[in-house]
Design a protein that fits this description.
The chain is built from 16 helices and 20 strands. By secondary structure, the chain is an alpha/beta fold. An 8-stranded mixed beta sheet has the order 1-2-9-7-6-3-4-5, sandwiched between helices. Helix 2 (about 35-50) runs parallel beside helix 3 (about 65-80), helix 6 (about 170-185) runs antiparallel to helix 7 (about 190-200) and helix 10 (about 270-280) crosses helix 15 (about 365-380). The longest helix has 17 residues, at about 170-185.
Length: about 400
């Protein structure tokens, strides 16, 4: 069944969950943060509660109201004696150094991830991570920007975050330490960056941090999600940017033939090249009987995989750039109860999505659109999202 939504309905705020999704896994307390307002509240509470150390790792940090609120909270933490460090991406973030002058003056440390000229267009820090006292962490897809921290208006993003309290937060904190040192060094080598990614990625236990980096054969998330899909029988995915390599598409197709696979992608975005890139893959997936859906009420930015009893959540999109080039953070959670709860979340998102049937896709797929989809697929997989966002592509053109 196809669901259609008027523009007025599409601009309605996302409903707040009646009961937050929580779990305890291997001594770590997990809590899903579904709405933008809750994300901002959780972030400010985490900063306010820090006593010894606080690290913030962001792709996008913009100098708007949300950026000011978070910056001021960081300054307050530094003034009360907390060691505060902030690392943002040079492409994704619009906040100039002067915006963080008060943080410098209060004793905080601030650094821009911007590799040398020959690599700067290739390697980007797309991670989102906040860790307080090596005890509590927040990960997810949301950036520090007004549109990610609200639930109303035509420009707001639908996204997810996860709060982790327990011993696993310390792993993420130590990873930040190494990445921050790498970013401060002049002419840091990609080889040493790949070593950091490999050193902190985990392969055992019900909770596993999966850090990925540039052109690394030790990319733990790519290998882990590929293995889980290869062995799985039930797959549910939500990805705003979906343009994976052919090998991964074939794994999804084989899973669909032996079980069930459903994928939600974006119908709305500020980067229509990514929508066109996702549609380039629809023909093959529909032929393999994968259920394809496009989320309607808001711009979609979620990154979520549920395969059997395993959940993957974090910053990574499902495209070549995220799997092979960007620095990304994902957390793999193997827990049947948590997976079941996340499937209930997926069903709610599915109810707000339009099913893309083979007939609908065929009507859309004019020769011009197929050409645009193919070109977008190529560009999205090699260029940073801030660059492809500037392409004047309309989703329905």
């Amino acid at each position: 069944m196809q669901r259609r939504h008027s523009k007025a309905m599409a601009d309605q705020p996302a409903p707040s969950p009646a009961r937050p999704i929580r779990a305890e896994v291997a001594g770590n307390r997990l809590e899903l943060i579904e709405t933008g307002e809750e994300r901002l509240r959780a972030l400010i509470e985490l900063v306010a509660g820090a006593r010894e150390s606080l690290v913030v790792l962001m792709y996008m940090y913009n100098p708007d109201r949300t950026g000011e609120i978070v910056r001021d909270a960081l300054v307050e933490a530094a003034l009360r004696g907390v060691r505060v460090r902030l690392l943002i991406d040079g492409f994704g973030s619009a906040a100039p150094p002067s915006f963080f002058a008060a943080l410098d003056e209060s004793g905080g440390e601030y650094c821009v991830f911007n590799p040398t000229y020959g690599r700067r267009y290739l390697v980007r820090n797309h991670q989102k991570l906040v860790v307080a006292d090596n005890r509590v962490a927040i990960i997810g897809g949301a950036n520090i920007d007004d549109t990610y921290m609200t639930d109303s208006g035509a420009k707001h993003w639908r996204d997810l975050a996860l709060r982790i309290e327990g011993p696993e937060a310390a792993v993420a904190g130590r990873y930040f330490d190494s990445l921050f040192r790498w970013s401060l060094r002049e002419r840091s080598r990609l080889r040493s960056l790949r070593r950091v990614v490999g050193e902190f990625s985990e392969w055992r236990g019900p909770l596993q941090w999966k850090f990925s980096g540039p052109l690394s054969l030790r990319n733990s998330w790519w290998r882990s999600i590929g293995r889980d899909i290869r062995r799985g029988k039930k797959l549910d995915m939500i990805f705003a940017y979906f343009a994976p390599p052919g090998a991964m598409l074939r794994r999804i197709g084989r899973l669909s033939r032996r079980g069930e696979a459903r994928i939600i992608t974006a119908a709305r975005s500020d980067n229509y090249a990514t929508i066109a890139a996702a549609r380039h893959s629809y023909s093959r997936l529909l032929r393999w009987r994968v259920g394809m859906y496009e989320y309607q009420p808001a711009k979609l930015h979620t990154k979520l995989v549920i395969v059997d009893d395993i959940v993957h959540i974090g910053s990574s999109n499902f495209d070549y750039r995220s799997l092979y080039l960007n620095l990304e953070i994902m957390l793999r959670i193997h827990d049947p109860a948590f997976a079941a709860a996340m499937r209930s979340y997926f069903e709610g998102e599915l109810a707000d999505s339009r099913q893309i049937t083979p007939e609908l896709h065929k009507r859309r797929a004019s020769p011009w659109r197929r050409l645009k989809w193919a070109l977008s697929h190529f560009l999205v997989n090699i260029m940073d999202y801030t660059v492809t966002r500037r392409l004047n592509f309309r989703a329905d053109a």
